[in-house]
Design brief:
By secondary structure, this protein is mainly α. It has one domain. It contains six helices and no strands. α2 packs antiparallel against α5.
């Protein structure tokens, strides 16, 4: 199986990168929507519009992109299993696990907004908007520089 995967390895990596880009776009945008949603009165037309935008971003873009990122990433790792022994890969996988947990947290906050239960401020969401950025920096450095 791994020989077959090696034969299509470039395609797997290309699809992995495309999935990561789509996922990260959503990870950057959803907390920014929350920043603006906080300012809208619950039940207002603006709030209801944000709910639709947030739900569609999460369900149509972010969830499938995260799943594809994991699938193509694991296929790439299966094709080159020796990389799993590398320290940089362990650090990358840990950062991706944290990013996936952040995705889950964003989904929970999205549900809170959908149910008009948000209790956090715009400032809080501005700060949380930086978490995916920091994780992305760590992941890219691990993959490109391979520091250990």
């Amino acid at each position: 199986m791994s020989d077959w995967l090696l034969g299509i390895y470039d395609w797997i990596v290309a699809l992995h990168v495309i999935s990561v880009i789509a996922w990260m776009a959503g990870m950057f945008y959803l907390p920014r929507l929350f920043v603006y949603h906080v300012a809208a009165a619950p039940g207002s037309e603006t709030s209801e519009t944000f709910k639709v935008m947030e739900r569609k971003l999460l369900r149509i873009i972010m969830n499938p992109a995260m799943a594809a990122t994991w699938i193509f990433g694991l296929l790439a790792l299966w094709a080159l299993p020796a990389w799993f022994a590398e320290g940089w890969m362990h650090a990358k996988l840990m950062a991706v696990l944290v990013l996936s947990a952040m995705h889950g947290v964003l989904a929970r906050w999205c549900r809170a907004f959908a149910e008009d239960r948000n209790t956090r401020s715009g400032r809080f969401y501005r700060m949380m908007n930086e978490v995916p950025t920091v994780l992305l920096i760590v992941i890219v450095i691990m993959v490109v520089v391979k520091p250990f």
